[in-house]
Amino acid sequence: MAADAQGPDKNQSESQALFHDISFCIVTSETLSEAESRRLATLLVENGAEYIPLPSDSSAVPIEEITHIISSTTDFPAYPGACDAFVSVVKPEWVDVSASRKRLLPVRPYNPDPRLFFSGVVITCADIPEGDKDAIVGGVLSMGGLYTNGVTKLVTHIVALTEENDKCRQAASRGIRAKVVLPHWFDDCLKLGKKIDERPYSLPGPEIGLLTLADPVIMPSSPDLKGAVSAYPPEAPPISVEAPSSLRRGFKVFKDKKIMLSDDLGLGSRLRGTVEDLIASGGGSVTGSVHKADIFICQYREGSNYITASRAGKDVGNLTWLYYLITNNTWTSPMRRLLHYPIARDGLPGFKEFKITLSNYGGDARLYLENLVLAAGGTYTKSMRQGNTHLITARPYSEKCAAAQEWGIHMVNHLWLEESYAKWQIQSLTNPRYTHFPHRTNLGEVAGQTQIDRQALERLFYPADQEMTSEDDGGETWVHSDRNGATGSGVVQSVDNPRLKQTFTLPSESLNTPTPVARRAPIGTDNLGGLRTPTTSRLIGSDENEPPSTTSSRGAKERAVARLHDLAPDIALYEKEKKRVGGVVFGGKRNAIAEVDKGKKRSLNGGDQSGLDGGENPRHIKKAKSIRPPVTIKLLLTGYKRWVSSPKTEDEERKRLRDLGVLCVQNPLDCTHLAAPSLVRTQKFVSAMAAAPVVISTHWVDACLDKGRLLRPEDFLLKDTEGESRLGLRLADALKKAKQNRRSLLADETIYCTLAVYDTYKIIIEANGGRCLIFRGSSRGGAGSNASKAAGTAVTDDESDGKGNDDMFLVSGETPEEKNLWTAFEKMAASKGRGARVVRTEWLLDVVMKQELNWKEAEKFYLSH
């Protein structure tokens, strides 16, 4: 670049400016004022950047003209398009810090995306072990934070075990207002995937070290749930058209927007008129055509209008979202909050079987979760009874929690419900994120932060394999066929955007049947009316190799033109990308349309693109990263010594393995291959046996890394004759039985554990399909009598397990505290007419390693009869 040249030349000095070759716009919001925007714009322009002002309504961002968007939030309409076009969205702090350091900083730590929950966090570590330090730093960096070795004014958190260290003293003496927190805070944040309050972890006197689980926790507020606790809005809009002008001054959230209100909202003529007047007073207008609309408001994820609007990239939300915009006069994405997006009539497949109750949530968080259960299609109950399947709790201490552990009811946090709804797929209860409860945190504080999964919506509700053709008169013909092969069509208005002129097929009932008007379900009902949700089986896709749906050659020509139109924006984006610092960015939804040849930039048509800086110092584009091969092996490692003392080597070699198609996983049930130096009884190895993986030696990992290529795992099968003799099993036989068991070795068993061994062996029992309960000494099984009374009649284990044994098993250690529980366990078993067997933990390890439940062999593990 010209920056390497010397001399007083004006052009050269301008090219050397800090923000040269950067074109930007600024999106104002509640947290980024107009005055601050002007200051940032001045600073950028003075340092060589080009300022692209937004339109007056600040709703349309000129993505094709800019390289950076300065915004304190991702809640603006153009954010998804900016991500697709690889336009950097950064916080205002990026500008100030880059200017103060006189160099461009990486944009990732300054991304306002809430999923990077450590964004804005700058840490330094004091007196913690090196291994823990590396793990914390890696987690913070991956989630958008920064690390510095010294104590600077930018540091927000000092990670320490005590305040008696040089860094804490230095921060205090220099007046640096950094929070001193225990490393446990980072561990809990990373496990949850959310940033929780630091207060319980802050030094001096951290709550997690001073208070017990039984001590009350302050009920937190849930700021992310403002105006988003229900999919059904109130009966009247939040403000009236006749409200004083002072309340509606500056009301412009709908400026130049056309909004379509769907018939399925069930609005009466009076309420509809009120809503239309409010839209007009906000600068918008109401239209009856989805093709002319910028925003589509509906209640359900179905119908041709919903599919058209969704596929066209229009904003699709429900009436609650519309009221939110009216109330706050600020645009926010309808996918930002789960209950701002239309619901499905039949709910989430499989969720109707669930009866869910809540514990330890309050205020808006409780009402939000109640409504989310109903929107997902489940049944919400205020109290817990025998028929409940799930308990969603903000912390694991309450009478309901004690009863849930006693009765074997699934106990999870709200993230399981939110992510099941967001991804439209019931999430696995074995995911540790859903069963993690920080010691002194009420998880209600992070309720409402989960966003709708766009890819899941597109895949399930408006898939991309649908077809649409064009008419000569400028309209579009929807081609559809019913299940008997009959076809039909209907002309609709044209789409102006050439990228949206795609072809897709709809079922005939979507066109011939008007969208039904739904009655509003009151809060607290157990279902949503029994109406059906459209499924992917109803959407008739078309394969690109199938013959066209019309015999006209004109249709084929038009489809070819449509594909060319699809490429045109990408080509335009490529021409813009050539002006970006660092050259063309590859990946994402845009395919690479340039090649790198000896440092010269050339487009596909062979035109020479070098010399963009005047011809003397052409900038070279970076070499495109090679596409990683698909994952063919999911590897679980245990007992591997190569990376123990070298975390940096571990990170590098894990990436190298991924480049070979090997993904290192942590969940034993996700692995296809298990690598160990020998037969070991670690938690990972024992739990993974249920999945019947290919068990190989860790020498395979070493050989793949040393040779730089993927070797046959079958040539490195684990052979440990000594270990098999020691454990009394043959590994090949055990794996064969595991394959036959299909993770159901303990499917009919309820096994009790003492508190001391519960956390470790619960994972092993559940991995094999069993149910694990804590035994605390109560004659009723685990919870005290109060919990049992509160929850109703306890579920008993009177039934035979069907495997020739009627005894109840308690897995226990041999500490004095655990021995005191044995008598109570025997009494509980006797009250149910069953025998009691207190066994060592080795019994469970032996059963799972052999993948065989042999009751006679259990006798050698008995601690009490």
TrEMBL record:
A GO biological-process term = double-strand break repair
Q: Which SMART domains match?
A: BRCT (SM00292)
The ranges of region (Disordered) come to 506-559, 597-620, 782-807
Q: Which residues form the BRCT domain?
A: 14-112, 113-203, 351-423, 633-718
Provide a GO CC annotation, any one: nucleus
Which Pfam families does this UniProt record tie to the protein? PTCB-BRCT, RTT107_BRCT_5
Instruction: List where Polar residues composition bias occurs.
Output: 506-515
Query: Could you tell me where the Low complexity compositional bias lies?
Result: 785-794
- Write down the superkingdom of origin: Eukaryota
This protein is called: BRCT domain-containing protein
Q: What is the lineage of its organism?
A: Eukaryota, Fungi, Dikarya, Ascomycota, Pezizomycotina
